[in-house]
């Protein structure tokens, strides 16, 4: 079995948002960091970085935060933004404050608009992020769209055609699947992640999306009992579902 990588304790805890290296040294000197219940005073000591480290290491009596890489599934609420460039509360504010200081940083995997709710993934694993958003992977995303006007029956064929050109773009959209739920509600499954894609697709048919919610990404489905703003860490089995 491959040996686990090692890190100095001060470097590791600093990269996990516990403070600068000198902050971590100060916390240790105060006897607040333990490994196997033994107080760690020398933070220059190297330790193996393994996923079960939080079982052995505690800070202020609490299990260490998860060591990376991590993947988070969140029920994004309406009114929060995925980008620091937009105004409003950020989805990152829903995570523990310390996690915002982690290096590598946690980013959203793709984005949902401020006025879109539903399944959002976040990760500090750059390679995974690129695999999920790569157009070559064709990861399906299913949205439930509520519409201002009734469907006219032509949308399904247009979206499936692979010929729909959104305004201002020069490459047609890949085929997408529309399933009407009612006259004014539809499930739309797309494999791309273009800017405001679903809203612009319905706008191209003369309609208007009044509510948008993402229910599925790959084989991951937003759990019905997960309330807006709630999140959970995914394990390896969950992560593999993304590409199913
Ligand atoms: N399409 C949109 O229009 N908005 C989203 O948030 C996601 C897909």
List its salient traits.
244 residues; alpha+beta; nine-stranded mixed sheet; four-stranded antiparallel sheet; 7 helices; binds uracil
SSE topology:
Elements: E1 6-8, H1 9-15, H2 21-29, E2 33-35, E3 38-39, E4 46-48, H3 53-56, E5 57-59, E6 62-63, E7 71-76, E8 107-108, E9 116-123, H4 126-133, E10 141-147, H5 155-160, E11 177-182, E12 185-190, H6 197-203, E13 209-217, E14 220-221, E15 231-233, H7 236-241
Parallel strand pairs: 9-13
Antiparallel strand pairs: 1-4, 2-3, 2-5, 5-6, 7-9, 7-15, 8-9, 10-12, 10-13, 11-12, 13-14
The chain binds uracil.
Residues 112-113, 116, 196-199, 212 line the site of uracil.
Helix content: 10-25%
Major sheet, described briefly? 9 strands, mixed
**Secondary structure tally, helices:** 7
Number of strands: 15
Which structural category do the helix and sheet elements fall into?
A: alpha+beta
Quaternary state, please?
single chain
Walkthrough of the structure:
With 244 residues, this protein is α+β, with helices and mostly antiparallel strands. Helices cover 19% and strands 27% of the residues. The chain has seven helices and 15 strands. It has helices at residues 9-15, 21-29, 53-56, 126-133, 155-160, 197-203, 236-241, and strands spanning 6-8, 33-35, 38-39, 46-48, 57-59, 62-63, 71-76, 107-108, 116-123, 141-147, 177-182, 185-190, 209-217, 220-221, 231-233. Helix 1 packs across helix 2 (21-29). Uracil is lined by residues 112-113, 116, 196-199, 212.
